[in-house]
Amino acid sequence: MTYFVFFLGVCFMLGGLAVASNPSPYYGVVGLVLASVVGCGWLLSLGVSFVSLVLFMVYLGGILVVFVYSVSLAAEPFPEAWGDWRVLGYGVGLL
């Protein structure tokens, strides 16, 4: 169980890093969804399943609203992906 909680913590940190290091909202929302799913899994491992479910529904609704708003403002024909050198530089700088 300890390894599972540690794994969830590492995935949560990677999700936050994915949001912070990517300037494109198309790929940044993947990090937000990953962080919310892992955070709710972390709460499930603590035994608070109702709070986890409510937070997941509220947070996922907020993510979708922010994602649609960001995409409508930043309509890019060629968004930057995680494989680009600039984006990898952001990730290394944040670590």
Number of DSSP strands?
0
Helical fraction: over 70%
Secondary-structure-based class equals mainly alpha
Individual helix count: 4
Average of the residue pLDDT scores: 80
Secondary-structure element pattern, one letter each: HHHH
| Bulk shape | flat
Main sheet record: none
Radius of gyration: 15 Å
First-last Cα distance: 27 Å
**Multimeric state:** single chain
Number of domain modules: 1
What does this structure look like?
Helix 1 (2-21) packs antiparallel against helix 2 (25-46). This protein has one domain (1-72). It is flat, with a radius of gyration of 15 Å. The chain is built from four helices and no strands. The chain has helices spanning 2-21, 25-46, 49-73, 85-94. With 95 residues, the chain is mainly alpha-helical. The model has no long low-confidence stretch (mean pLDDT 80). It comes from Mionectes macconnelli. This is NADH-ubiquinone oxidoreductase chain 6. Residues 1-20 form the signal peptide. Its EC number is 7.1.1.2.
